[in-house]
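Dear colleague,

Following up on yesterday's call, I've attached the two folding results inline so they're easy to grep. Please treat them as preliminary; we haven't cross-checked anything against experimental data yet. The first protein's sequence and structure tokens come first.
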Amino acid sequence: MGLGLALVSKFSALILLPIIGLLLLILAAQYPPATSRFLPQWATFTSAQRMKDAIKHCLLLGVIAGVVIWGVYGFHVEPLGSKIGQPLKAHASLKARLPVPAMQYLRGIKNVKHNSEKHPSYLLGHSHADGKGWWYYFPVVIAVKTPLPELLAMLGMLLLLASPRVRHTLGLPAEELWVLLLPAGVFLLAALGVLGISLNLGIRHILPLYPFLIILAGGWAVLPWRPRVLRPLLAVAVGWQLVSVLCVYPHFLAYFNEPAGGADRGSRILIDSNLDWGQDIGVLAQQQREHHLYPLAFSYFGTTPPEAYGLDCTSLAGSGVMHHAPAPDWQKMRGYLAVSVTNLYGGPGYAGADYRPLLALPRYACAGKTIFIYRIPEAGFPLR
């Protein structure tokens, strides 16, 4: 039942299906000694019986999850060929008339896949407007958005776990190691696009990867090797991570680690929800009142109407609430111009207009970490 509720809560939970199925099959093939308390009912089974039982459990879980999904959608049944708001044609084929439970759920999955193929993406100064993205997008995201001590601890422990001696020292049974490594591996494969869909939008899409790796990284705290050296190093690493995160307060969403240049240089590497969700619009409104930023033109990457914060501005082409706003007329513009970093670096695929020429101009101010402000001279912007 829990699997079904997870699936209806978020479409990305579909990744749980291969994870659960593979775990059961692997544990059936490599069942631990009879002294283990893990799945004790398998203790007297042969390998073939355990495999058969695992497949049976997978099918049962799938059926129960399917019924839960169907129930959440009100046990509604629709023909396979039906479309929202349109009656099924009288001459529809037999396949189109086939009744399908929870058709709404299947439409949602199809819609997510469709949107992923058209969503723009950005990495290391380059944009894709057609949603193709890069297979190495999420490895870069992990490398620059993870605090360095945490990243080194996770990678180091993964390397150490290749040694049977380390696994024995940690007292980590094989079945528990699979439970930690397999979900992390499947999530990473999905992020690389191996499973057929990968949204190059933000680290939030692979956050479930972290708990498994952090649990593994915790093994450093119990390694008995040279405690006089290891413990001080761990203390330094924890302190480093704490200072690294607190230094970006209160702009935690804009965090980038030190090798990436920190929050002030992160927009050269990543934008979108890795950095910018329109969270600094309140800061911009406060700066406008305090520093008399009038008149103000604004290209915003967000969904909150600027007037909700008392911001007095002219809307320019952007995304969200400014999706239909006009492109800037550089010759006529005067006063101040504020641009969300996603619109500034992402190009027309994100903003509907190209603001990248502004990057050659001096910046007047910055609202938080994600809205850049330019002062337009009376002679106009010297853009070419």
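Below is the second protein, in the same order (sequence, then structure):
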Amino acid sequence: MKRNVSLISEFLLIAGFAISIFATPSFTTLQPGQFREIEQNLQINVVFVGYRTFANVNQTIFRSGLPRTYRAINRSPSEYDPNGEPDFTGNKFSFTYNIVNSTQAFEDAYFAYLSSIAAAKPRTIYQERYNQQPVRRLNIGQNYQIDAVLAENWLAENAETMLGVNTRQYTVFFVNWFGRSDFKFHVYANTGIHDFDTGLNLGEDDFIQNIAGGGTPPDGTETPLGSLRRVWFYDRSAGPAYDPASWDLTTKDFDGDGYNDWRMPPIWEYGNTHGYRPFNTFSADHYLLTRFIAIDLLFTASPLYRVAISAPKLPSNLKFDVNIYEAS
């Protein structure tokens, strides 16, 4: 009798253990077979560096254009949906903003650093084209090239100690050097990037040199940042450069898509009403850059294709196209 009780007890113990293994787990976030949207609260830091020497951004106008929420979509499926319905990824964000005006000490230190690493270079072809614009306000003189990763790293490492800004959070730096006595016309180049077939320094190409930078990984192959930071800077006093077409002040439809452009001019052109559009949108242009480039394209980007595979439309096979860069 005791043996039978012992066997029954062992059976119940094993059965209970098996049930605990094979029972459907209780999920708090994911729900198999159902669409789930996961919300994340993000603080976006926006730091204005050097704006005391030119003009302050109107915070009422600036804040009015910043998004409070954002739902990421799968862009290609959304574009081709027969009913025109967005195909949501399941990522939803709510935003708060920490807007900071830098101190004089921070600006003096940063622009002194930029000056120390600036290398004199011939004007780029896009600066030369700017100098040919009939409605321009000034002529670009001696040009200087600045290493974009070094500039990014200085902002990332010093903003916390000098301004109290945590650059491990998503952070936008708007930079203006123009108006200071130590100002230099300049462009940014990622001088550590080389073409792995030819060995050419891509940072020296006028086509690639730019007025913004950021997003460098801490352990990048050629230009590691050294520590995890989430920084993007946009220098309104740099260039003009090819990518934003900031050198062209007169062409309304630069890309030829049939619509008048809304391009961002160099900061010294604000107030000029003789361009292809009146450059009188100083504060609004800053929220457009924050919203549609920093947040939409960089910080919480929507993927081109679906990144999750879930029922009921499961594929029978998957094809991977894997590219390996300088593996050995």
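For the second protein, one point worth flagging: Strands lie at 38-49, 69-73, 88-101, 119-121, 143-147, 171-175, 185-189, 212-214, 231-235.

Best wishes,
A.L.
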